[in-house]
Design a protein that fits this description.
Shape: rod-shaped
Structural class: alpha+beta
Distance between the termini: 126 Å
Number of helices: 7
Strand order of the largest sheet: 3-2-5
Radius of gyration: 53 Å
Helix content: 40-55%
Strand content: 15-25%
Order of helices and strands: EEEEEEEHHHHEHHH
Largest sheet: 3 strands, antiparallel
Length: 287
């Protein structure tokens, strides 16, 4: 009924193009408008002012000869004050935008290797946006945002990149493991060195205590037993140590024979025999 009376309705976020006898007349804002058809007025079409998105997939080659699919997302909208240009100047807006995206991506990506392409995707998006802004503003469109949402190399290239990454991580893990083993060996060696140092310190103190004890024993024996010399006391001490050594050798389960000096002429120098016996007893104990 409204069309018969020449009334049309323009929805919100939309503008309509009014013509008279095929000539552009004006842009109609949202609301109700009268178009008396008897005077040649008609509605040529409508144009949405909403934000629109176009996803463009472009295949190209990097500087290191790797083919990749670059996916760009273009967000754009028509300008209300240039609605006539947006309606009349372009027959297919999406194809026009796609052509510009192809041109910029295929001019930018071949200058970069694969790794740089991933690192500089923001620069690629900025180049696409700048080129589209200059081109599409003349046709009544505004480029709101341009995003490079994905860069997809060939499946074999992906696999090779993953293997390189895995090998690098394994090499790092091996290095860390070797470093840990090195630290353990150093700490173990430091512990052994400290242990040997303390053991040697204990032996030195033991020997010092023995020497001090022998000196005190000789002095005490000489004072309490008149007529004895230091040599007599030392001979007695050697005999005592000799029998202690023989006792230890006999108690050892690994010893099977003990060689001691014997013979009629050995009575001549008992001190010499005792010293020789002690030396041979210690040799048998160590074997």
């Amino acid at each position: 009924m409204g069309q018969m009376l020449g009334c049309v309705q323009v929805d919100q976020s939309t503008v309509a193009v009014k013509e008279q006898f095929g000539k552009f007349e004006e842009v109609l804002e949202p609301g109700c408008h009268c178009l008396p058809w008897c005077f040649g007025y008609q509605l040529a079409g409508t144009l949405s002012l909403r934000l629109q998105q176009l996803d463009v997939r472009c295949e190209t080659k990097t500087k290191d000869n790797v083919f990749v699919n670059v996916v760009a997302s273009i967000q754009y909208r028509a300008l209300a004050d240039k609605a006539s240009d947006a309606f009349y100047k372009l027959s297919n807006t999406k194809e026009q935008i796609q052509a510009y995206v192809f041109d910029v991506i295929r001019a930018s990506v071949p200058k970069l290797d694969l790794d740089s392409t991933f690192e500089q995707k923001d620069d690629i998006a900025r180049a696409v946006e700048n080129e589209l802004e200059k081109a599409m503003s003349a046709y009544g469109f505004e480029i709101v945002q341009t995003l490079i949402v994905d860069i997809e190399p060939d499946a074999q290239v992906k696999r090779a990149m993953n293997e390189i990454n895995a090998a690098a991580r394994l090499r790092l893990a091996a290095t860390e493991k070797a470093e840990a083993e090195k630290i353990l060996q150093i700490k173990r060696a430091e512990g052994e060195a400290e242990s040997k140092y303390l053991s040697g310190l204990g032996i030195a103190r033991q020997r010092q205590a023995i020497v001090d004890g022998l000196r005190e024993s000789v002095l005490a024996f000489s004072e309490n037993v008149p007529g004895t010399s230091s040599k007599d006391v030392m001979d007695m001490v050697l005999v005592t140590q000799y029998f202690d050594t023989m006792k230890e050798i006999g108690a050892s389960s690994k010893s099977s024979a003990v060689f001691i000096p014997h013979g009629p002429g050995a009575v001549k120098d008992i001190a010499t025999q005792i010293r020789n016996g002690l030396l041979q007893g210690e040799s048998a104990s160590m074997s």
